[in-house]
Design brief:
Radius of gyration: 18 Å
Low-confidence stretches: 5-24, 192-200
Structural class: mainly beta
Distance between the termini: 6 Å
Mean pLDDT: 78
Strand order of the largest sheet: 11-13-1-14
């Protein structure tokens, strides 16, 4: 058995975790989504965070096979302090809201990257890229797995979908490996599924350990 450690030195940056008030930006703004991917036939509990999400009542998708039902909307206290230019220090960060929803992916939904948006009385949010894949997915468990002894089993080959909930968080995953087996790993920031997204703004490190 081998261990896979996913570690991110910076969980969020100001551009990802905070938006400054702008009178021209009045619609919902999506900042993050977890889990980041699903398979045809899945029913997922999804958490979305962003600004101006109060009043969200529906999910919109560019694929009729992906539907959602809003379960709750609440304001949350973000652990990350915003870094702003001196000229913006007097601007109060916008509140961060968390939306919980049931996401249904029809069994006939094609594999590929689809667009999801949230709808509220403020309007329609920005699009968030959501890949539907045909490989096994290990979704990070809610229980702690920040030590080798607590490592969460992962299915490989496949995807591990997780999140960094606080600065400096360390997550361990374990998997079975065979002698002489070749494995390739890649860390992908959620929005990097979208070719037009900005370059990654966090520093990620992946390390392999013996059991």
């Amino acid at each position: 058995k081998s261990l896979l450690l996913l570690w991110c030195a910076v969980a969020l940056t100001p551009s990802q975790g905070f938006s400054q008030a702008d009178p021209e930006e009045i619609g919902p703004l999506l900042l993050s989504m977890s889990p980041l991917t699903g398979q045809p036939g899945n029913v997922l509990k999804v958490e979305v965070r962003g600004n101006r999400l109060d009043g969200v009542y529906a999910l919109w998708s560019n694929n009729s096979g992906i539907t959602g039902r809003i379960l709750s909307v609440e304001e949350v206290k973000d652990l990350i302090k915003p870094r702003v230019r001196p000229s913006q220090q007097e601007i109060k960060p916008l509140p961060v809201f968390r939306v919980l929803l049931d996401l249904q992916i029809d069994a006939t939904t094609r594999v590929g990257v689809h667009s999801l948006r949230l709808v509220s009385h403020r309007g329609v949010s920005n699009a968030f890229s959501f890949p539907v894949v045909d490989a096994p997915i290990t979704v990070e468990a809610g229980s702690s797995h920040q030590t080798i002894e607590q490592a969460q089993p992962g299915n490989l080959p496949g995807f591990i979908s997780g999140k960094l909930g606080e600065p400096g968080e360390v997550d361990f995953f374990c998997f079975q490996g065979r002698k002489g087996q070749g494995l390739r790993f890649e860390i992908v920031e959620g929005q990097r599924f979208d070719p037009s997204a900005d370059a990654a703004k966090f520093s990620a490190e992946l390390a392999l350990y013996n059991a």
